[in-house]
Amino acid sequence: MSNASIARNAAGDAAAAAHGPPAVGDFIALLKPRVMSLVVFTGLAGLVLAPGTLHPVLAGVALLCIAVGAGASGAINMWYDGDIDAGMKRTRDRPIPAGRMEAGVALGFGSTLAVGAVTVMGLAVNWLAAALLALTIGFYVFVYTLWLKRRTPQNIVIGGAAGAFPPMIGWAAVTGDVTWMPIILFGIIFLWTPPHFWALALYKADEYAAVNVPMLPVVAGPRETRRQIMAYSWMLVPLTISPWPLGYTGAVYGIASVVLGMVFLAGAYKLWREKSDRAAKALFAYSILYLFLLFALLMVDALVVGVGATG
Amino acid sequence: MAGRDRDRAKDARQRQLRSRNLAVLAVLAALAVLFYVITIVKMGGAG
After folding, report:
1. Residues A195, A232: Cα–Cα separation, whole Å
2. In this complex, is the C-beta atom of B39 within 8 Å of any C-beta atom belonging to chain A?
3. Which of A20, A169, A207, A249 is most buried (CB neighbours < 10 A)?
4. Is the predicted ipTM greater than 0.90, yes or no?
C-alpha cells in the first residue's frame, strides 16, 4: 500500500474502532452491487450464447460464482484504495473512508470470497471456468488496482480486461473451452471500457487530479481524451457488428448493433465537437445502455430467433 | 446522562452485532443447501 493509503487507512481504522462493528449493509456495499449487476448480466450472456447445455442449477452456481468473484475484487479494491475513495465525492461514503469498517476487514472478506468463488466454480462447474475467474480477480486486484491505477493513464485500458472476462467465463462454464465468439465478447467489453470511463473522467477530472489518479484527461488533457474516445469508438462499433457477418448471430442483433453503434459514434463525435461536460455525461450514460442492449440483443437472438453461436 | 448515552450506544452495538450474526447464519445455511443441491445434481450425472 502507498504511504498515503496506510496513513488514511490508519485514521479510518481508528474511526471504525470507535464506530463499532460494521453493519450487514456495509459488507454488501463492499461488493459494489451496481458493477456486479453488469458483470452478472454479461456472464449470463456467455452462458446463454454458448452451444450446449448446462444443468440450470450449475448455471446458477456459475453465475453466483461470477457475481461473488466480482464482489470479492471490489472489496479488495476498496481495502487498497481507501485513500482515493476518501478524496472523491462519489466514493467518500464507502464503508472504509466513512470510518464504518477497518480496512483489514475488507481485505479478509474479499480474499475469503475470492477463494470460495473459485473453489466452488471448479468443483461444481469446471476448472477452466474457475481458472478464468481466478485470472479475472487476480487481474483486477494485482494488475489494475495495485499496479496500473496509480501509475499510468492506460490504467483502465489494460485493467478493463478484468471486466471483459465474465462472458468468457460463462461460455467456458458451458462448453469447457474458449473459441472465437467468447473472444469477440471479451473484445467488445475491452474496447467499450476506455470510452465509457474516459467520458466519466472528463467531467470528474478535478476529483481524479485531487487524489493523484493519472486518468487520461488529467495527464493528457481533455482534447487528447476526446480524440482517444473517438478512436476507441471506431474500433468498438465494427467489432460489435462482427458477430452478424461471421454468422454467430442473426439479423435482429446485426441490424440493432448497427443502429446502436451509430448512436454511440454520434455521441462520441458530439463530445469531440462540443467539448462540453453535458456531452460527456450523455455519452457515459448511453455507454451503459449500449452495452446492456448489445448483450440483451445477443441473448434475444440466440433464444428467440434461434441463431445460436457455434464457437 | 452520560451513563444513559453509554447504555444506548452499547445497545445499538449489540443490535448491530446480532443482525450481523444472523446474516452469517443465513449465509451458512444457504451454502449448506447449495452444496447439498450441487451434490445431488452432480450425482445425477449433470455437468
Report:
1. 7
2. no
3. A169
4. no
- Write out the three cell numbers for B22: 444472523
User: How many whole angstroms from its chain centre is CA A177?
Assistant: 22
In chain A, the domains with their CATH numbers are: 8-177 (1.10.357.140), 179-311 (1.20.120)
Q: Check CB contact of A126 with chain B, cutoff 8 Å.
A: yes
Closest-CA distance of chain B to residue A34, Å = 21
- Taken in order A300, A303, A306, A307, the sign of the CA dihedral is positive
Gyration radius of chain B's alpha carbons: 20
The mean pLDDT value for A227-233 works out to: 97
**For the purposes of burial, counting CB atoms within 10 Å of the CB of A259, is it exposed (0-12), middle (13-18) or buried (19 or more)?**
exposed
| pLDDT, tens digit, 9 for 90 and up, residues A37-46 | 989 999 999 9
Q: How far is B4 from chain A (nearest CA, A)?
A: 18
Contact B23 A55 (CB under 8 A): no
